[in-house]
Amino acid sequence: MSLKEYFDQVASKWDSIMGPAEAVKLEEILNSCCIPNGAEILDAACGTGIITPILLEAVGSSGTVTAVDFAPEMIIRARAKNFGPNARFLVADVMDLPFENCTFDLVVCNGSLPHFPDLKGSLREMKRVLKNGGRLIISHANSREEINATHRKIGGPVADDLLPTAVELESMLKNAGYIEINFEDKPDRFVFLATKPSA
User: Fold this and answer.
1) Is the pLDDT of residue 25 over 70?
2) Cα–Cα dist 70/181, whole Å
């Protein structure tokens, strides 16, 4: 089974897998990232739109959330939630985003980084679509150890989808050209913020 087939298969139960407790923690994490009102956000690998309502509330009526996922079933379920005119959902791969350079104020990558087959390439591609001075938020509502243990336990196509250490990820972000890199590597979260340099 391919990774895409796996995520298509679990899409129907994704909301119950993530659960309300995780949504509450993600709201706290994302609210602490100071998302500006009116921002244009890309939700990279959005799943069923778990964080879409959090992002929409943060950006307000003048902001937008564009969400992509490579698994069509995830996008079908996200669209069915009818989040309104300020949210749109597209089937697209983070490795080949269908957007112009410098499109978004923020790229949010929640709970999905380990699943990208080319981590370094995905960081460069997300940076490409960020505006100069724009920020990347990588968020996980669990510890790195817990996430990696879960993926190993599930096995199959996600068995080797592991988060790098904070030091490794910081190095990857620096090599991809990000600056102002800050992170929290704690027992209940793994969160990185990084900035694309201004022109």
Assistant:
1) yes
2) 27
Tell me how many domains the chain contains: 1
Which residues lie across from 181 on neighbouring strands? none
> How large is the C-alpha radius of gyration of the chain?
15
List the CATH number of the domain containing 76. 3.40.50.150
Distance CA 141, CA 144 (A): 9
Closest of 181, 68, 78 to residue 135, by C-alpha: 181
Q: Report pTM.
A: 0.93
**DSSP string covering 61-96, please?**
TT-EEEEEES-HHHHHHHHTT---TTEEEEE--TTS
pLDDT exceeds cutoff 90 at 60: yes
Region of 60 (left: φ > 0; alpha: ψ -120 to 50; beta: rest) is left
Q: Identify the domain containing residue 25 by its residue range.
A: 3-195
* Residue 177, amino acid: G
**Could you tell me which residues come within 8 angstroms of residue 95 by beta carbon, excluding any fewer than 6 positions away?**
116, 117, 118, 121, 122, 125
Provide the 10 A C-beta neighbour count for residue 87.
23
> 111: closest CA among 56, 165, 190, 16?
190
